[in-house]
Design brief:
Layout (H helix, E strand, L loop, with lengths): L6 E4 L2 H10 L4 E7 H7 L11 E7 L8 H12 L8 E6 L1 H13 L5 E6 L2 H7 L4 E6 L2 E8 L4 E4 L9 H17 L1 H8 L4 H18 L14 H11 L3 H16 L4 H12 L5 H14 L1 H12 L9 E7 L5 E7 H13 L4
Parallel strand pairs: 1-8, 2-3, 2-4, 4-5, 5-8
Antiparallel strand pairs: 6-7, 9-10
Helix pairs in contact: 4-5, 5-6, 5-8, 6-7, 6-10, 7-8, 9-10, 9-13, 10-12, 12-13
Bound molecules: nicotinamide-adenine-dinucleotide.
Nicotinamide-adenine-dinucleotide binds next to helix 2, helix 4, helix 5, strand 7 and helix 6.
Length: 348
């Protein structure tokens, strides 16, 4: 059964405003990243809409994804007379859309919602697919639902205020898409404008999720680079996207029999302004070859990965041909042994 998912639209701020004005509800609930809101509030024309418009200024970024913040937000909205046909609009990066989606999925047993991603990571990944989440003291994203937004409105002009770190973090996911889809690889290789690349990535994720909402088949391919990526992220305190590029390189450099992929990685990394990740990868691999403590911490993070399927096995996403990822279930001990041997090759 194909589940009809969200509609993705690339649009201008004028069109965003028109869309909000024309929405059929008489009650809009805007859940906004407060830092983003201080930059863009004036661009949203919310007066004279002829409808109630409640604005919840969420804590910026990851801080919004807590149970206490969730309770505060729900109490505010419930005490302001919302009803079942109210429509939630999440405006911000991935953290804010995760939070807004969670609020929408639970408030009054579920309200419809729209995502307006403002970070690059949000536009190409986090706002798409309907996974909503809060964090627990036991870990990130452990409390959540699947509640697909009806619309994803992408206005690339928000990216002009994004910090370089956040921009590069989003680019890390774009590099990943280059290996998941031949047409994205070709578009990046041909230096197509960022706006088209964003649209291709968003639609690619959307199509994958449409076929596998509950993560049992093709959706797992979206984790390419992530098992090792998360370990790099946590072990060395790197940004998510940069860590994903290192995880991706580990899969390509140490697992792929097709050695051409190494060159392909260098090409797209260069096209996306991530050429430095090549040297970064070598640096962290040689660091682990010289520092047993770092290596064992890295291995501990790999072992704790959410994609572990039993106590002793783990699913990793591999690649031999661009656009043809596959999942392999491997014994954890075997995986770590292989990586350990490869790390030795980086000893200087
Ligand atoms: N639901 C999913 O499928 C999914 C997928 C991937 C990631 N995620 C989640 O997404 C989050 C990461 O996404 P993110 O990097 O967008 O995080 P984020 O929401 O924390 O945004 C990163 C930072 O950028 C700022 N920001 C956002 N847009 C801006 C703009 N236009 N101008 C200036 N600053 C801006 C935010 O205030 C924040 O400080 C994590 O919480 C992760 O768990 C969810």
């Amino acid at each position: 059964v194909m589940i009809p998912l969200s509609r993705i639209t690339i649009l201008t701020q004028f069109e965003v405003n028109t869309w909000l004005n024309n929405h059929e509800t008489d009650c809009l609930i805007l859940i906004v990243d407060s830092d983003v809101w201080s930059l863009y509030e004036d661009d949203f024309m919310l007066t004279n809409m002829g409808k109630t418009c409640l604005v919840w200024r969420a804590l910026p970024g990851e801080d919004s994804k807590s149970l206490s913040h969730y309770t505060e937000c729900c109490d505010f909205l419930l005490s302001n007379g919302i009803h079942r046909n109210a429509h939630v609009v999440g405006i911000g990066g991935g953290a804010t859309t995760d939070f807004a989606g969670f609020v929408a999925s639970t408030l009054l047993r579920g309200l419809s919602w729209t995502a307006i991603p403002t970070s690059l990571l949000g536009m190409v990944d986090a706002a798409i697919g309907g996974k909503t989440a809060l964090n627990s003291i036991s870990g990130k994203n452990l409390i959540g639902t699947i509640h697909v937004p009806t619309q994803i409105l992408i206005n690339p002009s928000y990216l002009s205020s994004l910090s370089r770190t956040e921009y590069l973090s989003g680019m890390g996911e774009v590099v990943k898409y280059c290996f998941l889809s031949r047409s994205i690889f070709d578009a990046v290789h041909a230096r197509e404008p960022l706006e088209s690349i964003i649209e291709l990535c968003a639609r690619h994720k959307e199509t994958v999720v449409e076929r596998d909402l509950h993560d049992r088949g093709g959706r797992r391919f979206l984790n390419l680079g992530h098992t090792f990526g998360h370990a790099f992220e946590r072990c060395f305190g790197l940004s998510h996207g940069i860590a994903v590029t290192l995880g991706l390189q580990l899969i390509i450099n140490e697992f792929a029999a097709n050695s051409e992929l190494v060159g392909r990685y260098a090409e797209v990394a260069k096209a996306l302004g991530l050429e430095h990740t090549d040297a970064l990868y070598t640096a962290y691999m040689s660091k682990m070859s010289a520092d047993d403590e770092a290596k064992s911490r890295f291995f501990q993070f790999v072992s704790k990965d959410k994609k572990r399927t039993s106590n002793t096995a783990i699913d990793i996403v591999r690649i031999e041909c661009i656009g043809e990822p596959f999942v392999e279930s491997v014994a954890l001990s075997e995986l770590l042994h292989h990586v350990s041997q490869r790390i030795e090759l980086y000893r200087v």
